[in-house]
Each structure stands twice: as C-alpha cells, then as structure tokens.
TrEMBL record:
Residue ranges of every copy of the DNA replication/recombination mediator RecO N-terminal domain listed in the record: 1-80
Species annotation: Caldalkalibacillus horti
One Pfam family named in its UniProt record: RecO_N
Database matches in SUPFAM superfamilies: ArfGap/RecO-like zinc finger, Nucleic acid-binding proteins
Family matches, as HAMAP family: RecO
Name of protein: DNA repair protein RecO
Keywords: DNA damage, DNA recombination, DNA repair
Lineage: Bacteria, Bacillati, Bacillota, Bacilli, Bacillales
Domain of life: Bacteria
Family assignment from sequence similarity: Belongs to the RecO family.
Function summary: Involved in DNA repair and RecF pathway recombination.
Signal peptide: none
Length: 249
C-alpha cells in the first residue's frame, strides 16, 4: 500500500553500504519505520529528506502488519537550518527526538504530539530560549505519555494557595502543611512554581520571551529530571549528551 504522510525524521541509522533506516513520526500514522534505499549516496533523490530532523511530506510503501516500509520519495517542508548549524540547538533537538521516540508507540497517531514536536523544533530554529522550550516540551510529552506531574495544587491535600515544594515521591506540588509527608521534598521558589504552572498550560506557539533567573532554571530542570528518573523507565543518551553540551556553552 502506498502511503503519503506529513512527518519528521526522529531517528536515522545507516544500513549497509548505501541505505538508511529512518524512524518517522507522522501526523497521520504515528511512528513508522522505513527503509530509505541509497539515501547515504550524495546524488540520491532521498538524501535530503533522510536527514535527522527533516520535516516534510513522505511517500512510502508499507505492507500489512507492523513490518518496515520502503521510502519512495519525500519533499522537505522546513529545513531548520539554524537548528542544524548550532551544536547546542542540535543537542536539544536530538533530546526532543529521542524523548518522542521512547514515549510514543508505533502506528498510533497523535496530531497534538506531532504538532508539539514540529513547533518545538521551530522555536529552537527561531532562537527562542532552548532551556525553557525544553521544559515546556518535557511537561507536554510526559503528560501525554501518562506521566503527568500534579501541578494544580498540593498532591496530598489539594490546597491551591500558599507555599509549595515538589515531592518527587508523590509526583507533584506539596504544600507547606504537608511537608512532613515527604521529608525529601524539593524546596521551590514561588517563581519556579508559577513558571511550572505556566509552561504546563501554555502551547508552544504562544511562548514569548521569558526572563528566568539562573536559580529558577536550575530548579525547573531539577524538578522535571528527578520526576522523569523516578516515575518513568526513560534513560536517554541524548539527555546525558545535552547535559555535557550545556556545561560547555
């Protein structure tokens, strides 16, 4: 069956002398693996669309069942040139791509997550604050994957006003009255609580320029990465690499 889909390359592996195995995250069909024959060759008509992070329209053959498809042709829609030429931005994009690959299941379309990934790549390309974009992306995709932190109020008593920390153990905000429930809770500044709630609610295309203090940035990352490590099975090589890159820049 010949399938046409709007998609983005989230993984690319060399196969044999001239081929590539691509993982596409598509709007219409979810995550799909395809063989791009000859794509490693410079003169191949598939070489330009077989690059990691390529966003375009793809045409591929796919048989019945969950077997791998065969890429026939593709047309790039956006090149994300700035993203590709900046090593730190590329590191963030690789992290987004691997996080998507690990969380979504094959052949399960999710138009919202597809748009989230494309919009997040676009924000990186437009030189938005990559660290803040990353926190927004993490919150959205974790929630969609069934790993949603409780950010509306205290995870223990439901209280919505006052001072809050974050309980990794309980999976959300914890108010000062309930601190005794988790002595290992993370202390948070009020600004961190506010930004976490904002990022949880806002969509990427509405993200403007946010001035965030270094200590608040550190708390945001600590909360979400501790939450991921405790509540998900995800262990991402791209996150380790990103951590190294952020220390260099």
């Amino acid at each position: 069956m010949l399938i046409r889909a709007e998609g983005i390359v989230i993984r690319s592996n060399d196969y044999g002398e001239g081929n590539k195995i691509l993982t596409l995250y598509t709007k219409e069909h979810g995550k799909i693996g395809v063989m791009a024959r000859g794509a490693k060759k410079t003169k191949s008509r598939l070489s330009s669309v077989a690059q990691l992070f390529t966003y375009g329209n793809f045409l591929f053959y796919k048989g019945a069942g969950r077997g791998m498809g065969s890429l026939s042709q593709g047309e790039p829609l956006e090149s994300f040139r700035e993203l590709r030429q900046d090593l730190l931005k590329t590191s963030y994009a690789a992290y987004f791509a691997e996080l998507t690959d690990k969380i979504v299941e094959e052949n399960e379309p999710n138009a919202y997550l597809f748009r989230l990934l494309v919009d997040s790549f676009r924000l990186l390309d437009e030189d938005k604050d990559a660290e803040i974009v990353s926190r927004l992306f993490e919150l959205k995709i974790l929630s969609s994957g069934g790993y949603r932190p409780s950010l509306n109020g205290c995870v223990v008593c439901g209280r919505t006003e006052g001072y809050f920390g974050f309980s990794v153990q309980e999976g959300g905000f914890i108010c000062e009255r309930c601190y005794h429930v988790d002595p290992q809770k993370l202390s948070l500044q009020p600004g961190t609580v506010k930004i976490l709630r904002t990022l949880y609610l806002i969509e990427p295309y509405r993200l403007g320029n946010i001035n965030v203090k270094p200590e608040t940035r550190a708390e945001l990352k600590k909360v979400l990465w501790f939450f991921m490590d405790h509540h998900t099975p995800l262990r991402l090589k791209s996150r380790d690499f990103l951590e190294k890159m952020t220390k260099l820049f």
